[in-house]
Structures are given as structure tokens and as C-alpha cells.
């Protein structure tokens, strides 16, 4: 099984294909609207705007498992993101990223170590996984800003030729 075999969570717009897919670099991020890290939406949107035409997308995955910081419905979350941060990248339905009801996408992702060697449960909102066009995955911690040099370098290295 590869990351591309996992069915991604549904989204608010059924016309948008969600989830990592071959040939596209996808930055998968568990997001929350009422978190101290929520301003990371700005950097995520800038990455989307900068690289979307080059085979890249951000995929926001709302999750309410960390301090109840994503309490809204899928439509409320999408409205907040669009209105407050100008988000244009796709958002999935709200899912669980840890525990017995962990979505299969995150079952695959949490096995990947970050730069410090950490594997396992998602630690907080805004943990990031760059899934390359070939299925390779690079993990970044929640406090790593979307436009951090390490994230940008990984995206640029993963962009389809």
C-alpha cells in the first residue's frame, strides 16, 4: 500500500479531488480555527499561490482533537478560512488524526519521522506533511512556519519537473 492508495477525507466542494495524488506535491496540514497557530493560514495560502501552477497544493484537514480548537461545521470552517485568511486551497471534512478513529490518511502519515526522528501521534494543530509526487513524505512539526526555509526547500525539491 502507498499513500496514494488511501482515500482522502471528503471536502466541502465535491468537484475538487482531495488527497495526495501521483504527480502532485501536496502539503497536508491538520488545521484549526481557534488556535494560537491559526495565523499559519497566511503562510499556507502564500505557498498555495506561489506554487499552485507548478503541481503543488496545500490540503487543509480540520481536526478538533486539540483543545476543541476546531468546533465548527465543515461549511463554517470553510467560511472562516476564506473570509479571515483568504484561503483558496481545499479543505476536507473534519476528521480525527489520532486515536482509535484516526483517519487512514493519518495512519500512513504518522509513521514518517520528522527531522528530529519523531514518529507517532500528531502533537498539535498545524503539523505538516509534504507528500511528493512520487509518494515520499517529509514531516514538519506544528511550530514550523509554512514558509520556513526547510519547508520551502522541500517543496521546491518535490515539485514535478
TrEMBL record:
InterPro entries: Glutathione_peroxidase, Thioredoxin-like_sf
Signal peptide (UniProt feature, chain positions): none
GO molecular function, one term: peroxidase activity
Keywords: Oxidoreductase, Peroxidase
Residues at the active site: 35
GO biological process per UniProt: cellular response to oxidative stress
CDD domains: GSH_Peroxidase
Pfam families documented for this protein: GSHPx
Similarity-based family: Belongs to the glutathione peroxidase family.
PANTHER family, A to Z: GLUTATHIONE PEROXIDASE (PTHR11592), THIOREDOXIN_GLUTATHIONE PEROXIDASE BTUE (PTHR11592:SF40)
Name the record gives this protein: Glutathione peroxidase
Organism encoding this protein: Actinoplanes regularis
